Amino acid sequence: MYVIAVYDMGEKRVGKMLKLCRRYLNWIQNSVFEGEITEVKLEELKLAVKALMVPDEDSFILFKTRQEKWLEKEILGKERSSIDNFL
Q1: In this structure, are residues 67 and 38 in contact, taking their beta carbons and an 8 Å threshold?
Q2: How do residues 26-53 score in pLDDT, each as one tens digit?
Q3: Do 49 and 20 touch, CB atoms closer than 8 A?
């Protein structure tokens, strides 16, 4: 499945959330990640996010689609991080 993850965390937890999300997804822009992920890895990520966040202060939002081809992405201005992978 293809997901876009967006978070808003307290200042003390932002760095930890950034490192956590980078283990599972591609960094796109401040607090925004996207990429292909399995159901198992997504559940792993969600459990780790819940352990890190303070529910009354922080938010983590997931947008899911079956495949990236069903998502149209338009970038205006500078693209912060290219997700091209070279083998």
Answers
A1: no
A2: 999 889 999 999 999 999 999 999 999 9
A3: yes
Classify residue 32 by burial, with Cβ atoms within 10 Å: 0-12, 13-18, 19+. Answer: middle
> How confident is the model over 54-72, as pLDDT tens digits?
999 999 999 998 766 667 6
The first and second tokens of residue 39, run together, are 């159901």
pTM above 0.90, yes or no: no
Q: What residue ranges do the domains of the chain occupy?
A: 2-67
Residue 36's region, left for phi above 0, alpha for psi from -120 to 50, else beta, is beta
Residue where the block lists tokens 């978070």: 7
Tell me the C-alpha distance between 5 and 32, whole Å: 6
Report residue 49 as tokens. Answer: 């996010």
In the 8-state DSSP scheme, what is residue 38?
-
Q: Kindly report the CATH number that applies to the domain delimited by 2-67.
A: 3.30.70.240
